[in-house]
Amino acid sequence: MKPVYAAVAVHVPAPPERVFALITDWPRHREWMFMTTARRAGEHAVEAYTGMWPFGFLDTMTITRWDPPALVVMDHTGRVVRGRGAIRVRPHDCGSRVVWAEELRLPFGPLGRALWPLARPLVHALARHSLRRLGALLRRTG
Predict the structure, then answer these.
(1) Can you say whether the dihedral through the CA atoms of 101, 121, 83, 22 is positive or negative?
(2) d(Cα 141, Cα 137) in Å, to the nearest integer?
(3) Which of 84, 70, 67 is nearest to 7 (CA)?
(4) What CATH number should be reported for the domain whose range is 4-24+61-140?
(5) Burial group, residue 54, by CB count within 10 angstroms (0-12, 13-18, 19+)
(6) Angle of the 16-23 helix axis to the 109-140 helix axis, nearest 10
(7) How many helices (H) and strands (E) does the chain have?
(8) Alpha helices in 1-142 (DSSP H)
(9) Which among 38, 41, 64, 92 has most CB atoms closer than 10 A?
(10) InterPro entries given for it (predicted)?
(11) CB distance 44 to 62 below 8 Å
């Protein structure tokens, strides 16, 4: 099935090195990413649980490109989330521009595809909300 694409970009008032370090500090995801906890699960693997137990899903990922402080690319390998995601950090206006992009193969076959037009604005809003929380956290921690 053809993948879907979602991406958001925000300005974060911190240098790329600090932004990238926080983004890739997996246990700290719970501080900024909406309803998500994450952990390293091997040298090139990350596991993230999104939701509130028992209502949620496990997102398993393999890091396929690591280029600090500019880029991390991951393959989503879980049962629900499959595809590829990337977070890019670039210097911009006395801070950083963070772009979070996902190319996903939706679950639930034709039903997932049919629901995507309804889910897409929510996915964008939650990703933007999370990145803004990331920026607020970086402002608070100086």
Answers:
(1) positive
(2) 6
(3) 84
(4) 3.30.530.20
(5) exposed
(6) 130
(7) 2, 7
(8) 16-23, 109-140
(9) 38
(10) Polyketide_cyclase/dehydratase, START-like_dom_sf
(11) yes
CB-CB contact of 46 with 40 (8 Å): yes
Burial bucket for residue 127 (CB in 10 Å: 0-12, 13-18, 19+): buried
Side chain identity at residue 21, one-letter code: A
pLDDT tens per residue across span 13-56: 999 999 999 999 999 999 999 999 999 999 999 999 999 988 99
Q: Residue 142: its pLDDT value, please? A: 65
Q: How far apart are alpha carbons 104 and 84 in whole angstroms?
A: 6
Residues 6 or more apart whose Cβ sits within 8 Å of residue 61 = 45, 46, 47, 48, 74, 75, 76, 77, 78, 85
- Domain extents in the chain: 4-24+61-140
Q: What is the pLDDT of residues 73-126, one digit of tens each?
A: 999 999 888 999 999 999 999 999 999 999 999 888 889 889 999 999 999 999
Owner of token pair 């890091």 = 63
Cα–Cα distance measured from residue 78 to residue 142, given in angstroms and rounded to the nearest whole number: 35
